[in-house]
Amino acid sequence: MMLPLPAVGGYFKVFCMRIGIFGTGYVGLVQAAVLAETGYSVLCVDVDASKVARLEAGEIPIYEPGLEGLVKHNRAEGRLKFTTQAADAVKHAGIQYIAVGTPPDEDGSADLKYVLAVAESIAIHMESHQIVINKSTVPVGTGDKVRAKIAETLKERGREDLTFDVVSNPEFLKEGSAVGDCMKPDRIVIGTNSRETEAVMRELYAPFNRNHEKIIVMDVRSAEMTKYAANCMLATRITFMNEMANLAEKLGADIEQVRHGIGSDPRIGYHFIYPGIGYGGSCFPKDVRALIQTAKAVGYETTLLNAVENRNNTQKTVLFNKLNAYFGGDLKGKVIALWGLAFKPNTDDMREAPSRVLMEALWEAGASVRAFDPEAMQEAERVYGKSDRLTLVENKEAALEGADALAIVTEWKAFHAPDFARIKNTLREPAIFDGRNIYDPAVVARHGIDYYAIGRGKTI
Ligand SMILES: NC(=O)c1ccc[n+]([C@@H]2O[C@H](COP(=O)([O-])OP(=O)(O)OC[C@H]3O[C@@H](n4cnc5c(N)ncnc54)[C@H](O)[C@@H]3O)[C@@H](O)[C@H]2O)c1
Q: What is the pTM assigned to this prediction?
């Protein structure tokens, strides 16, 4: 299956200035736009016809800073196109990215049906050598499955003469800064066992590797595991801090002071040690669960990751428990103002967001919610529809009107320096429940507002 390539540069110039990308979600669309920006001709395929129609009409289905301009510019230049036809992408290029979802199966393991469907489509339509780059987050061993699916389909076609290679190239972008992360990656992990394919990949990513060497080449399985290990490490750091925060609250310590105290140790550092109300989003929860399942399948029990998963689920209920205690266990008829719906700032993504756990618990207890988020309002309406229990308002001040208390759920910059006097005068009960520790307790107290945050000494 290896590429018969004495002249890698020749292959690259002929086939690789053109790229096919399967999946136009956060990863596929951003990767496509960034590659097009550097000069590649990119044809994106998605099975979601309405998404493709929107993209072709110049609409961006997700909010990601900088993405809209990039997509518009490259569409106008003719370097970025969208289709529902897999055949067109395969014909277009000799490099195909798989950037489709890998949602959790019932037991938490990654469901590979979309990844394998793309592998099959590529094999059905290919007429010349293809390099298939797996960018989706996939369990160790998926490279072999993709390879087997392509080989099997080519055999069915009677085209075993066609050659291909499968590369693991996990994506480390962060939603909210995806364009920047993709333009200037910290590292480019390439999992391949072929020197020829490595050379093509190095040439493909040369525009992103100019400042210093960022490419790390390893075998396919190690590359696949690197992605899970990275996300599980970050989820563990967050969870560790949440555990410390809960303990600090009981001990009368302020976790924010502790955070500064430990972050100053260069062995620990300041990244990913913010306590809060649990990690969410489309990656950490599913990737932690998937690695737990991968380990189970080989007879290994991930006691640490099991604890991370459990603690995180509990952490998402912390803000509700505080509100419930504050109102004496009776939230019936209460109106809670929510600032923030997205799972983190600078995105409209609400997948596994702590806001969902909080709102659903409030509704269950008979309360209703008035919510504002700078970007996730449409998404909230898509998820929950229109109802009396959830009023989506046009700005953060409007969320306070008629509300009993305020909950801070996402740490958007726009929430960092509010008009505390207005909060005090508008809320029925002057109380803020801050799930992100964005305020100084002394400042809030000076305004005569009760302040309950995460791990800041004051418990309820
Ligand atoms: N979102 C992130 O921040 C992020 C970061 C790194 C890695 N990842 C991983 O990248 C992968 C994609 O994530 P995402 O957030 O972009 O997903 P997404 O759900 O936003 O998008 C996936 C897209 O793939 C399309 N699709 C499904 N089957 C297809 C097929 N057969 N052909 C063409 N398109 C098809 C879907 O319609 C959808 O538009 C996942 O494995 C995820 O874990 C995500």
A: 0.92
Residue 4 pLDDT level (bands cut at 50, 70, 90): very low
Q: What does the pLDDT look like over 273-330, one tens digit per residue?
A: 999 999 999 899 999 999 999 999 999 999 999 999 999 999 999 999 999 999 999 9
Would you state the torsion angle of the CA atoms of residues 388, 389, 393, 398, taken in this order, to the nearest 10 degrees? 100
CA atoms in the 13 A half-sphere facing the CB of 422: 9
Q: Is residue 25 lining ligand 1, measured as CB closer than 6 Å?
A: yes
> Is the CB of 100 inside a 6 Å radius of any atom of ligand 1?
yes
Residue 3 has what pLDDT?
Answer: 45
DSSP string across 305-319: HHHHHHHHHHHTTHH
Which amino acid, residue 111?
Answer: D
Q: Rounded to whole angstroms, what are the CA distances from 160 to 99, 126, 144, 332?
A: 26, 11, 17, 67
Residue of minimum CA distance from atom 19 in ligand 1 = 101
Expressed in angstroms and rounded, the spacing between residue 256 Cα and the centre of ligand 1 is 35
In angstroms, what is the span from residue 17 Cα to ligand 1's centroid? 23
Q: Is the separation of the CB atoms in 135 and 22 below 8 Å? A: no
How far is residue 419's CA from residue 440's CA, in Å, rounded to a whole number?
A: 14
Ligand 1, residue 137: give the atom nearest the CA: 41
Q: Which residues contact 124 (CB under 8 A, 6 or more apart)?
A: 86, 87, 153, 157
Q: In angstroms, what is the C-alpha Rg of the chain?
A: 24
Q: Enumerate the domain spans of the chain.
A: 8-218, 252-460
pLDDT at 320: 98
CATH of domain 8-218: 3.40.50.720
- Compute, in degrees rounded to 10, the torsion defined by CA atoms 97, 99, 100, 103: 140
99 Cβ below 6 A of ligand 1: yes
Active site residue 44: no
The answer regarding whether domain 252-460 maps to CATH 3.30.450.40 reads no
| CATH fold match for the domains 8-218 and 252-460 | yes
Tell me the C-alpha distance between 442 and 447, whole Å.
Answer: 9
* AA identity, residue 263: G
Ligand 1 pocket check for 176: Cβ under 6 Å: no
Question: What DSSP line would sit under 145-179, residue for residue?
Answer: HHHHHHHHHHHHHT-TT--EEEEE------TTSHH
- Give dist(CA 114, CA 234) in Å, integer: 26
pLDDT at 265 (0 to 100): 97
- The predicted-structure confidence for 211-259, as pLDDT tens digits, reads as follows 999 999 999 999 999 999 999 999 999 999 999 999 999 999 999 999 9
